[in-house]
């Protein structure tokens, strides 16, 4: 989104009497381009990271997909055959047990 458009949205949001500063900040942040690139890994690598941290050996892909079904992990689908996972999310779950 162009900076002029973001500035106009900021101006309109601050003009709203019901919008507090936190709300305006969230609106503007949602409009700004995302610069962080996610470090995506394969399902095999995700199994290895989770398993080594928890059990000392890689977990199976069946277990990985159980985590996805429960909403613990969130896959990024490029197509029906190409699926990746966010490395930070996988490592956080492997080390802490929760997302």
Describe this structure in words.
It is a single chain. The chain is mainly α and 99 residues long. It has two domains: 1-35; 40-96. The chain has five helices and three strands; from the N terminus they run ααβααββα. The protein has helices at 3-15, 21-31, 43-54, 61-70, 87-96, and strands at 40-41, 76-77, 83-86. α3 (43-54) runs parallel beside α5 (87-96). The protein is elongated, with a radius of gyration of 19 Å.
Outline of the structure:
With 99 residues, the chain is mainly alpha-helical. It has helices at 3-15, 21-31, 43-54, 61-70, 87-96, and strands at 40-41, 76-77, 83-86.
Offer a few descriptive terms:
single chain; 99 residues; mainly alpha; 5 helices; 57% helix; elongated
Q: What's the helix count?
A: 5
The stretches of 5 or more residues where confidence is low (pLDDT under 50) are none
SSE class: mainly alpha
Q: What overall geometry do the principal axes of the alpha carbons give?
A: elongated
Measured as a percent range, the helix fraction is 55-70%
Question: What amount of the residues lies in strands?
Answer: 5-15%
Separation, N- and C-terminal Cα atoms: 30 Å
* Helix-strand topology string: HHEHHEEH
* Radius of gyration, CA atoms, in whole angstroms: 19 Å
What can be said about the biggest beta sheet?
3 strands, antiparallel
Number of strands: 3
Query: What's the average pLDDT?
Result: 84
Number of domains: 2
Give the strand order of the largest sheet, numbering strands 1, 2, ... along the chain. Answer: 1-3-2
């Amino acid at each position: 989104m162009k900076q002029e458009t973001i500035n106009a949205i900021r101006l309109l949001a601050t003009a709203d009497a019901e919008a507090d500063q936190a709300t305006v900040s969230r609106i503007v942040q949602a409009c700004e381009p995302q610069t962080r690139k996610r470090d995506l890994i394969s399902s095999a690598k995700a199994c290895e990271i989770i398993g080594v941290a928890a059990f000392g050996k890689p977990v199976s892909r069946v277990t990985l997909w159980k985590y996805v079904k429960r909403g613990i992990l969130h896959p990024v689908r490029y197509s029906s055959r190409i699926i990746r996972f966010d490395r930070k999310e996988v490592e956080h779950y492997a080390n802490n047990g929760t997302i």
